[in-house]
Every structure is written in structure tokens, then in C-alpha cells.
Amino acid sequence: MTAVGDPELLGRADELRAGRTPYVLATVVRVERPASARPGDRALVLADGTIEGFVGGTCAESTTRVEGLRVLASGEPGLLWIRPGGARVPAPPGVRTVDNPCLSGGALELLLEPVLPAALVLVLGDAPVARALVRIGAAADHEVRVVTDPAAPLPPDTAAVVVASHGRDEPEVLTAALRAGVPYVALVASRRRAAGVLAEVAARGVPAEDVARVHAPAGLDIGARTPAEIALSIYAQLVESRPAGEAEAAVPTATDPVCGMAVATGPAGVPLVHDGRTVHFCGTGCRDAFLADPARLRRMTAPGLPVDVDALRAGLDATGYLADDALATALFLAVRLGQPILLEGEPGVGKTQAAKALAEVLDTPLLRVQCHEGITAAEALYEWNYPRQLLSIRLAESRHAELSDADLFTPEHLLARPLLAAIEHPGPRPAVLLVDEIDRADDEFEAFLLELLAESAVTIPELGTRRAAVPPVAVLTSNRTRDLHDALKRRCLYHWIAHPGPDRVAEIVRRRVPEAADWLAARVAGSVQRIRGLELLKAPGVAEAISWANALHVLGVDADEIGTDGSGAEPALLAATERSLGAVLKYDEDVQAVRAAGLATLLASP
């Protein structure tokens, strides 16, 4: 980044315009603190990704580079909102939003304006039509140049070549324009004379498909008669033939393996060649962090990891787990940042299932610690195989050999529990460590877990420190029965999984109970939503909806004789619901509350 004062920046912009160099002017229009940029800060984004000026720190600059190149490719201005990863604030309408995991809590809104050189039109000739082309082109904000040397090379960004010389140097200039790939080439001539000129162009070795690109006679058929009208028809044809700007222009990007950001892969980025492949970073800080931690390096470059949020979400979807963008983003960051993630939510919303689905996507072991009151570190970490130790002692006695503690406390006598198994997992992809219902554990276990996650290592007194070769993806779940300590929360990414709406619940039920009829999934989802509106000791969640749909299907309420829309099912559905309330409600008081509300009302079609 080059720090440039405002007058100098504007002077540099004038220099780029004079040299017909395209760029994007990025202006900070709004700031949410903390942020290093201020409203009015500006920068220029060049086509190679170079940024001149200041719109924030390294991470904001990296996002501005990617989005600036996108705007430059599409030619359309736009507003960009860079917000911290995981932010829940909805994007303003009409604003492109990028979640930036590097930001320290602030947000930036920028106006990105592409500044493109005027279309360069070359005109050969001095006839009235040629002179009219020069006049009208200037009025249309085109840059029109008269060709004085037909043998001179054409500028590489030439948009159009119009030959209006009435016989002079026509084949030469047309041939040069076609070979240079000029988008619009036209010849002002009658059809008969144009055919002869184009035949000569073809005789010079120009392929027939290129010769066919020449517009001859030039211009749209608008009944033009005067030189000015003919020139106008030519510009109309030029505009008509111009390709439309892309709404989503493709910009080559890669994912920074440390922070998870999308970064441009052009020459202005921060690349690193590692193990024969190029890895791209948002800045030197992430590159240095990548190099400083070999275990992290192995994890981030492990084959098979999802390359972006969309890839992870598609993978979760393939396992049958329906994740929204926010949850998929949180899980992706946990994988890419090597940071534990805390999933909170009421029971039954899919927290545990998210970890299981993630392990399936990564094709890696799921190692689960089920927390409970009084759980100890040793219970979740390791224990010694006493029967095997006793067998070793008996064998030594039979051979009249002496055993020391070092002979009995070896890796062969160790039984690894989930925490140690996660640390010792060899890779190449990280294991998924699920610490389920961490809110049920005591403070001592929470403190131990914090230390283990921070160091990715554990010390066994008899064997020394065991350090992870590939640190696990740690997923902690909590039903929020108590508050966790701030230290653990600060260590983790955080995501709250709310109970989904009825449409989403219905889709989840269809995936988890595919044999059930579609109408049954919808009825169950709607009924669960209405039941949740009652005063209950324990409101049903997604898990109960799945269990209930399965129970109703097994009881035959969606049998073949029932209509595909559920018509005719009401008597059977009402009776089966009465018998299966235990699948969705877990307290007798709740069962009575549902009955008092009226089963028929709760089961009504949406």
C-alpha cells in the first residue's frame, strides 16, 4: 500500500486517465468504530490489484482489492459494506456485503467507482463521413483519433476502426484491425465496392470468420442520407454491438488459509509457494503466521478441506444437514482459522448434528466428549490399561525379569479418550472434536479444556507432552443452562442456532425422514411451531419434530390410500397424534397443556 495524500491521489488519478489506464476510485463513506479509516479516505485500485491510497488496514485493503477488481471488470459502480465476520446486522438494500474475519469489530462502507478510458475509435479518411465521425464521437464521450499512418501499430485498447477513406489504404487498415482483434470494424462503402475490398482482405490470409466481422456497409439501417446521419448510424451500431457489462464479473480469487478471506491472486497479492503449489494471503501477517506454526500449516494445506463457504454448505447439504449461510460461515471459519467454535441454542436445534455433519464433510473422525456434572479431565483425556499392565507384570515374573515404572507406563499401556485421541490424530485432515453440552461440566473441567484448546497439547506425567501434529476442529455445544466463563468464550468463535421457522423445519424433516409424505412433514412442522407458542416446561425442538414425524409415519397416517395433500388423513392423524405425544413432549404437564389447547386446532393445515 502506498500512503498518498488527497491532492497527490487526485493528481495520480489524472495521470492514469491521461494514460488511458483503468482504475477504481474507492471512497470511505461510512465507518463503524473501531476502524483505522475515516469517512473521506480514498484509494485507487488498479487492474493488477495495486492499491494507492488508504481505505483501512491490511484486511480491509484486501477486501477492497477483490471487490474493486470485480467492479472494474463489470464497469458498474457499487456500494461495499465490509463488516466483521459473524455480524448479525442485515445488509442495507443495494449494498454488497462482505464478512471480513480480520476486522477488529468495526465496519466500513465504501463507494467503488470504476473510471474507464473512453472508447477509442480510429477513423481512416478525410471524407465528410469521416469528419462527421470525429465530431459526433467527441459529443458521445468517445476518444476519436484520425489515422494518419496506415502502417502504424494499432493501440491495444482500440474499441473500433472505421474505414471511410473511399479507396485509400482500405485493405491494409482492415487487415490490421482484424488481426489485432478490434471488437468493431466497419467499412463505409456500397455493398458492391465493399465486396471487392473484403475479397482483397481475405486474399491477405485473413480467416473468413474474421472477414465476416466487418460491418459493410457500415452503420444501422436507419435511412441515413447525410454524412452526419451516416456517422450517427455507425455509432449506434457500435453501441449495439458492445457486450453488456456483467453483473457478477469473475475475479480470480483464493482463500487465505489463515484468516479465511477471499483474496485476489494477481501480482499485487501476497503469494507463497509451498510444497509445489502457490498459497495466497491477505497480507504479510497471515503469511508469517502460516510459516511460524508448522501444525497450523499442515492443517490449512490439508487436501479435501472446503475451499469456501459455499463448498462447505454444499457438503453439509449432501449429508442431509440443512445449514443457513451464517452457520456455514461460522463452521468454515472454525476449520480455516483453526479456532474452536461454540454453538449455543436450546436443546434439539441441531448443534450436535452440525458437528457430526462437519466430520462427514471433512471425511475425518468425530471424537465426542459428552459432558456431565463432575466430569474430570482424566475421564475425557486418558486412562491406563490396568489389565494390560497386570499382564505385563505377570509375564515379567514368569521370566524372572524386573519391571520399572517406565516399562509399565508406555504408549502401549495407554487408553486414549476423546481429548487425547483428537490431539494424537495424525491427519492429514483435522479430526472433529465434539465437546457436547459443555455447560453441564464444572468450572475445573472448563478451565482444563481452555488450556488444552489454547496449546493443542497435553502433558501426561509419565510420558511428557503430547502435541497435536494437526490440531482438531473443536466444536463446543451448550444449551445455555449456565454462562460459560469469558476466557473460554473469547477463545472460541460463537454462533447461536435459533429454532428454525416451519418451512425450514419441514425441509429438515423431509431430509431426515424421507419415507414420510411431504404433507406430513409440513403438518408436523406447523404443529410444532404452534405448540412452541404454548406455556410449556420444555418446548419441542427440531429433534422432536423429526421424532414425531417418524412416529406418525410408522403409525400409518400417511399410508398409500391417503391423498398426496393429506386429504382424508384427519381422523387417523388426530388419533395417531393423541397416541404419539410422547415423541414430541417430555413432561406430563406439557401433554395436558397441549390437550387443553385442542389437538385439532394445533394440527390444522397451515
TrEMBL record:
Known CDD domains for this protein?
AAA
Q: SMART domains attached here?
A: AAA, TRASH
Record SUPFAM superfamilies: P-loop containing nucleoside triphosphate hydrolases
This one is known as MoxR-like ATPase
This chain's source organism reads: Pseudonocardia halophobica
- Report domain AAA+ ATPase positions: 337-518
Q: Which GO terms describe its molecular function?
A: ATP binding; ATP hydrolysis activity
Which residue intervals define the domain TRASH in the entry? 256-294
Pfam entry (one): AAA_5
